[in-house]
Amino acid sequence: MKVKIGGYPDYYYWLDRLFGWKPKQKISVRIDPHDTWSMEHTLAHIITPMLVQLKATKHGSPWVDDKDVPKELRSTNAKPKENEYDTDSNHHLRWDWILDEMIWAFNQKCRDDWEGDFYEYEADDTARFGLKLVWEDREGQKAHQERMTNGFKLFGKYYENLWD
After folding, report:
1. Which of 151, 154, 153, 161 lies closest to 54 in space, CA to CA?
2. Which element (helix H / strand E) includes 143?
3. pTM, full prediction
4. Is 140:132 a contact under the CB 8 Å cutoff?
5. Which residue numbers in the chain have pLDDT < 50?
6. What's the CA gap between 35 and 129, in Å, rounded?
7. Are 108 and 114 in contact (CB under 8 A)?
8. Is residue 65 classed as helix, strand or coil in its secondary structure?
9. DSSP string across 78-106
10. The predicted structure's pLDDT at residue 26
11. Are strands 27-30 and 119-123 parallel, antiparallel or unpaired?
């Protein structure tokens, strides 16, 4: 895979403001067959640092559904607003939480061995493949996978809000 995306020209802002003209970015993408063998894993290595940078440099927050965040971050648990048109005190905290969940999920996808956190083996010459399972945490693994899945769902739901 080779991706090259050039920045917008410096004069982009004024051309857009004055004339409504948006110059095109120079974009070149080459995908090799092996790039799609585990495409979700390959993309996670690209998406993760982009999400981290977005969180660090964002200039605002989109509207986030209360149902997507913990109860303590919901608008119903925020301080009363001064004006109806104001955002509530948890508005930006909700977006930070969503970004954190996406970042966590994609970080886990980058790890080839996250499932190994929930199993332990020891050498045993009598066991098949020379290893015997001595400990496993199926509930922990299930909860971990559910959190990852939720992070990916949030990524899809808020995809069009990934702007700075």
Report:
1. 161
2. helix 138-157
3. 0.85
4. no
5. none
6. 31
7. yes
8. coil
9. SPPPSSTTSPPTTHHHHHHHHHHHHHHHH
10. 84
11. unpaired
Whether 124 and 131 have beta carbons less than 8 Å apart is answered as yes
CB 107 within 8 Å of CB 59: no
* Residue 37 DSSP class: T
CA distance 95 to 154: 11
* Residue 69, pLDDT score: 98
Q: Please give the Cα distance from 18 to 37 (Å, whole number).
A: 46
CA atoms of 63 and 66, how far apart (whole Å): 9
Sketch the domain layout of the chain as residue ranges.
1-30, 39-161
pLDDT (0 to 100) of residue 158: 98
Amino acid found at 43:
L
| Amino acid 95: pLDDT | 98
- 132 burial (CB, 10 Å; 0-12 / 13-18 / 19+) is middle
